[in-house]
Amino acid sequence: MLLVDADRPEPVRSGARELALFLTPEPRAEAKEVEETIEGLLLRLEEFCSLTDMIRSDTSQILEENIPLLKAKVMEMRGIYAKVDQLEAFVKMVGHHVSFLEAHVLQAERDHGAFSQALRKWLGSSGLPAFRN
Fold first, then answer.
1. In this structure, how many other beta carbons lie within 10 angstroms of the beta carbon of residue 16?
2. How many angstroms separate the most distant Cα atoms in the chain?
3. Neighbours of 4 (CB within 10 A)
4. What is the pTM of this model?
5. Which of 14, 50, 84, 129 lies 20 to 30 Å (CA to CA) from residue 110?
6. How far is residue 126's CA from residue 124's CA, in Å, rounded to a whole number?
7. Domain extents for the chain?
8. Positive or negative, the Cα torsion across 57, 60, 64, 68?
9. 13 contacts: CB under 8 Å, gap ≥ 6
């Protein structure tokens, strides 16, 4: 630090004052810069909070409106699946009965097929053309 004596000339004193003013930090300018930085950060924080609030409200709206609709659709689909299962069981039962009847028809054709051919021959050997048809 410069010591300024009273017996020194005036230019030295004024130079010392200028140097002191130059070297003295300006707390107001630095404080202003820090305040601006803090204000910018607070603004960004406020924007982030409003964005999260918007997302939270959208999520709540989705949960309140769409989830009940999805539950209703799930219940509807369960009913449809139950009907499909019943139809599958019915088709399987009908298929089983058709196979059973088909087997009986084939057996009856085998058992009575010889009789029908003999009947046709007997009717054909008679002289009546109407019986042949």
1. 15
2. 170
3. 14
4. 0.41
5. 129
6. 5
7. 27-125
8. positive
9. 4
